[in-house]
């Protein structure tokens, strides 16, 4: 069956009769994400809501005032997923979420154009494609594509968009000799019952069930974002078409504005400034490392010289690092003391690292309670516990625990 949306992809409102309405628990797939659903599947005499297929995601819309959250193809019928039932025999007004659909049309027709140019001009055939929530990609049967070719492909596509070349749909019978002309590009064969060919001027003919623009100028612009390795022997070419380019550009402008505020200088200076900051940070970190190392030696001497000799050491320095903690433990290794050191993770406040060192009997008495309070993970090995903690909020409670324990132990 050829759906109304495939006859005229620009229809946004249409009246049709409900044939069937059944309960369903089939999940909703939203750009590859699987979402639980419980509701109804409605079949109509015809539909302007596109059921997912040929790489194009499903439409969403309304049947009267009832929301349609997914449309799937089953055989030659379309199942409309609604939260509420609609009685069979009812005439309903179908409405479509046009901004979502037009976006899909721009990405899908854009894909056809890109695939055609890649194959015709550069012998780079498309083996599959993916339309994502923010970006799309074409899987190309090649291990690499040069930046130079990408630039030429983008320029060619945008020139053809400027020429406003018509995009038309041909319906062919299975024995039509014209059929040999049209590609399938190894794309999903879920719509093969309807032999529908999308033609871009005399540039491309391609079998497809999707909804398309009627003229390349409706694509506005194609922007290639780059390539990345795909499956074995394939390369994924990421791209944006039309409104998505404008949206992505606005996001980049917002980020640039935020960076201009942070770096207090114009965008052309950002790279230079960040490089400088990174260099400075490296030097500062090295200096801090040296200071912490000296501080660790100072702490060790101070503890060693304390009279009477302390039974335990409890040290929490937020700004310390694992090296500092390890140096303290090493320096006090043979002093017969219970040592607890902790530091905070600079990137995740409240989380951090602890080391406990001492007699196994003391650890047995305190270890479990300390790791419980601080939500720690690790093991006691060779007279030492070393591990990560998830909540340094309980550090004072631990300090009290250790103090009480050693003040009561004879
Ligand atoms: Zn297609």
Question: How many E-type strands?
Answer: 20
Give, in order, the helices and strands: HEEEEEEEEHEEHEEEEEHHEHEEHEEH
Bound molecules: zinc ion
Q: Sheet with the most strands?
A: 6 strands, antiparallel, barrel
Q: CATH architecture of the largest domain, please?
A: 2-Layer Sandwich
Number of helices: 8
The percent of residues in helical segments reads 25-40%
The unreliable regions are none
Calculate Rg over CA atoms: 33 Å
Read across the widest sheet, the strand sequence of neighbours is: 1-4-7-6-5-8
Shape: elongated
What oligomeric state is this? single chain
Mean pLDDT: 92
The fraction of residues assigned to DSSP E strands is: 25-35%
CATH topology of the largest domain: Threonyl-tRNA Synthetase, Chain A, domain 2
Q: Structural class from helices and strands?
A: alpha+beta
For the termini, the CA-CA separation is 89 Å
CATH class of the largest domain: Alpha Beta
Q: Compute the number of structural domains.
A: 3
The CATH homologous superfamily of the largest domain corresponds to: Threonyl-trna Synthetase, Chain A, domain 2
Organism: Euphydryas editha (Edith's checkerspot)
Keywords: Coiled coil, Cytoplasm, Metal-binding, Protein biosynthesis, Zinc
Family: Belongs to the class-II aminoacyl-tRNA synthetase family. Alax-L subfamily.
Domain Alanyl-transfer RNA synthetases family profile: 1-251
Structure, explained:
- This protein has helices spanning 4-7, 98-122, 147-162, 243-263, 270-305, 322-331, 360-374, 395-408, and strands spanning 13-24, 28-30, 33-35, 39-44, 61-63, 66-74, 77-82, 91-96, 126-131, 136-140, 167-171, 196-200, 204-207, 222-229, 235-241, 312-316, 338-344, 352-357, 376-381, 384-389.
- It is of the alpha+beta class and 410 residues long.
- The protein has three domains: 4-96, Elongation Factor Tu (Ef-tu), domain 3 (Beta Barrel); 102-250, Threonyl-tRNA Synthetase, Chain A, domain 2 (2-Layer Sandwich), CATH 3.30.980; 296-408, Roll (Diaminopimelate Epimerase, Chain A, domain 1).
- The strands form five sheets. A six-stranded antiparallel β-barrel has the order 1-4-7-6-5-8. Strands 16-17-18-20-19 form a five-stranded mixed β-sheet, with helices on both faces. Strands 9-10-15-14 form a four-stranded antiparallel β-sheet.
- α5 (270-305) runs parallel beside α6 (322-331).
- It is elongated.
- The protein starts with a helix and ends with a helix.
- It binds zinc ion.
- Zinc ion is lined by residues 54, 108, 112, 208, 210.
- One of its GO terms (molecular function) is ATP binding.
- One of its GO terms (cellular component) is cytoplasm.
- Functions in trans to edit the amino acid moiety from incorrectly charged tRNA(Ala).
- This is Alanyl-transfer RNA synthetases family profile domain-containing protein.
